[in-house]
Amino acid sequence: MKTTLALALVATTSLTTAAFAEDKITEFRIGILGGENAQDRMTSHECLKTATEDALGVPVKVFAPADYAGVIEGLLGGTIDYAWLGASGYAKTYLADPEAVEPVLVKVNVDGSIGYHSIGFARKDANIASLDDMQGKVFGFGDPNSTSGYLIPSIEIPAYKDGITMESGEYFGEVKFTGGHEQTIVAVNNGDIDGGVTWADGQGEWEDGYNSGALRKAVDAGLIDMNDLVEIWRSKTIPEGPIVLRKALPADVKATMTALIDGMYEADQECAYNIAAGETLGFQPVGHDTYLSIIEARKLKSQ
């Protein structure tokens, strides 16, 4: 193990002998947002489960609810301790209870940035080159609590062109919620819907599904050939969502988990790849202020 991870494990010694004596946890619960099937999510996070058990010295449970709301409700209800939320999911959690969670880290792209994009896409053989070609066709969003799969495109796409709305039968022939990023990708690839949105860092090669994101995960899983798809729209840069910890956790538990994730790239690059949905330089500290614009956007959508 590298130095950073070793320091986290050293911190655990004092944690288990001192802090736990007063404020003990008996297990640690990790929540994983929807976006790919539950078994794939569990498999990709097995390395994190093992590392967390080693660091905290308690059993770790991993939960993969069917939708984003399941993770958000778990954080609000105190049944999930850790999650990587999208910016919109964090905004919803914060607006429901400002004291529920705290953002601690954010994924870093290979160029050092911490942003990503909502990517609109279609099948290449559908002769759809842009949103102009989507009029009267079926358009798919992922999850209502997804930043790139709903919130941002629902704001930016109507600004693309007069007459575009998110209502079925107005500009688009039908607007559907597929349930998540992987579901949207598969639905477009199979021709069940004409176009949709998902997330990607927008860096690297299209053929690889970019460097990280849902397209990269789908390529890695063998679900799609990117040569069969085409990008038809791209959002402005979105701040990458935060890794959050439940505020009520003991301080030493939060410190240990933050150190563990912060050092994951140096300690285990394969695990960092798995939990970051693709290529990354690791993680860096992040605070609430990074998400103020997304919080305001969610407020506006709820009015």
Computed Rg: 20 Å
Structural class: alpha/beta
Q: Give the SSE order as H and E letters.
A: HEHHEHEHEEEHEHEHEEEHHHEH
Number of extended strands: 12
What is the chains' assembly state? single chain
End-to-end separation in angstroms reads 50 Å
What is the overall pLDDT average? 91
Helix residue percentage = 40-55%
Provide the spatial order of strands within the biggest beta sheet. 2-1-3-11-4-12
Shape: globular
Low-confidence spans: pLDDT under 50, at least 5 residues? 1-22
Largest sheet: 6 strands, mixed
Provide the β-strand percentage band. 15-25%
Number of helical elements: 12
Question: In summary, what is this structure?
Answer:
This protein is an alpha/beta fold and 303 residues long.
Q: How would you describe the overall organization of this protein?
A:
The chain is α/β, with parallel strands linked by helices and 303 residues long. The protein has 12 helices and 12 strands. The chain has helices spanning 3-22, 38-44, 46-56, 68-77, 87-96, 147-160, 181-190, 214-220, 251-262, 264-267, 269-275, 292-302, and strands at 28-31, 60-63, 82-84, 101-108, 115-123, 138-141, 174-177, 195-200, 229-234, 238-239, 242-246, 282-285. The strands form 2 sheets. A 6-stranded mixed β-sheet has the order 2-1-3-11-4-12, sandwiched between helices. Strands 5, 6, 7, 8, 9 and 10 form a 6-stranded mixed β-sheet that branches. Strand 6, helix 6 and strand 7 (174-177) form a beta-alpha-beta unit. Helix 1 packs antiparallel against helix 9 (251-262) and helix 5 packs across helix 12. The longest helix is centred in the N-terminal third of the chain and has 20 residues, at 3-22. It is globular and about 60 Å long. Mean pLDDT is 91; it is low at 1-22.
